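At this stage, I needed to go through a protein sequence along with its fold in token form, as given directly below:
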Amino acid sequence: MRTLVLLALVGLGAQLVDGSLGMAYGVTSTTLLLAIGTNPAAASATVHLAEIGTTLASGASHWRFGNVDWKVVLKIGVPGAIGAFAGATFLSWLSTEIAKPLMSLLLLGLGVYVLLRFTFRGLRTDKLGQPLRKRFLTPLGLVAGFMDATGGGGWGPVGTPAILASGRMEPRKVIGSIDTSEFFVAVAASLGFLVGLGTAGIDFAWVVALLIGGLIAAPIAAYLVRIFPPRVLGSLVGGIIIFTNTRTLVTSDFVSLSPGVINTIYALIALAWAAAVVHSVREHRKAVAEAATEARRVARAAKEEAPA
């Protein structure tokens, strides 16, 4: 029972992050399942089965708040489903001994990307309104879908920053569209795992626990995307993913390190993580102050130009 409650809380927290940042539900949930000993394919299958419900609820919530571009959803969701099915069948084929460190390595890479992307680059907005082309979204969907299934997460960490980096959509619509299109990915990945694994190793009570937490968080996250600074949240989540998956790798059978070296690695990660969060908070405050200054300048200029 304690495990189920913990999983429900993880599902709630992961969906709060995913729905407000456009990434990290799968990465966060899969990381925890790996940490408590679940085999990689079963962990990814469990998370994707839960995501069928959470992504449907999240998409509906984002649609209600006007955060969804349906053209983008279809253009990236269909190739994403194809990539996810391929990735699920590939992971099902790998042995557990190879799959666990491989998945942790993929998750670690995604965590580093999330941390660096949101800590140092923030969000680009200089090309808002320009259309996103199919030749960009189709390969992006294929790669992100494959990464999502094989890494237990990756749809958001790959898709959201790529579209944000284009600067052609409002951040809230990028997040809403990615979360909504993830429904196609979750269904396709789940089918792929069921074909490759059957139901072996999948605990459906865990699926339901993750689902319940995600369903509670979905409407809250769709609202928070309007008010919570994604730059800070991205740095926080990236650090969690890096720390947890580094722990999995340095304690695996493929790595032989002394306790002193392992503790040093943990300490360095913690220091870098803390510095990244502090930098993100400072940059966010700076951006808010600059925006306020610009708003006052525009207001003064408008007042001066107004007829007496």
Summary: The chain has a mean pLDDT of 76.
